Amino acid sequence: xxxxxxxxxxxxxxxxxxxxxxxxxxxxxxxxxxxxxxxxxxxxxxxxxxxxxxxxxxxxxxxxxxxxxxxxxxxxxxxxxxxxxxxxxxxxxxxxxxxxxxxxxxxxxxxxxxxxxxxxxxxxxxxxxxxxxxxxxxxxxxxxxxxxxxxxxxxxxxxxxxxxxxxxxxxxxxxxxxxxxxxxxxxxxxxxxxxxxxxxxxxxxxxxxxxxxxxxxxxxxxxxxxxxxxxxxxxxxxxxxxxxxxxxxxxxxxxxxxxxxxxx
Length: 264
What we know:
By secondary structure, this protein is α/β, with parallel strands linked by helices. The chain has two domains: about 1-85 and about 180-264, P-loop containing nucleotide triphosphate hydrolases (Rossmann fold, 3-Layer(aba) Sandwich); about 95-175, no CATH class. About 40% of the residues lie in helices and about 20% in strands. The chain has a six-stranded mixed beta sheet with strand order 6-7-8-3-9-10, sandwiched between helices. A four-stranded antiparallel beta sheet has the order 2-1-4-5, with helices on one face. Helix 4 runs parallel beside helix 7 and helix 6 packs across helix 7. The chain is globular and about 55 Å long.
């Protein structure tokens, strides 16, 4: 058996394609993500990165291709059900309960895996109270991990942009994911906030979490990624380690907007 065949795979996609009308947003893209690694997807503006992430997370169904997670076929499984399999994600446009406190936003994430009778949500029986107390305690821990310990009782809509970014990650972590997908997590952050973000993502990886990141910040990508997939015009351009990506002529041309030779 080859070394490649022995490499474990957590998330695998084969031949993913997606069209919107006459626009081919993603064309025949395949990838494999190993457990406890950071896998990055990069490419110029309009390359199809967010569309690919939406296919992998279940926001969009593919027109062709297959997605498996730990051996289970999730191709037609909707996004909210993939959370129960251990997949969580954040969005380029932040999605929070703006009127709820930061703490309550994170608490909401825990209810995905709640195993208490539904009627206790109405009458707040003992099981509900114990569960709710545990959730609030763990939510406070996650807020502290993301640097928001002093903002627990502030409405999400009143937080700064960078704080809302961190809060969205904390809420995703509340679902106890095995794979965390983050879409442009550094967008709109200042240098100090980016540094904090990098530290947190590296810490999560060390703790065994697998991370898929779509990002424009190349310093962040080259710092944290184990493997990088480069796409352009919705197609696979190159995949390799960060140093290989930095040196690849096709990648350099795509980012500089140079014309590349077409395949014969």
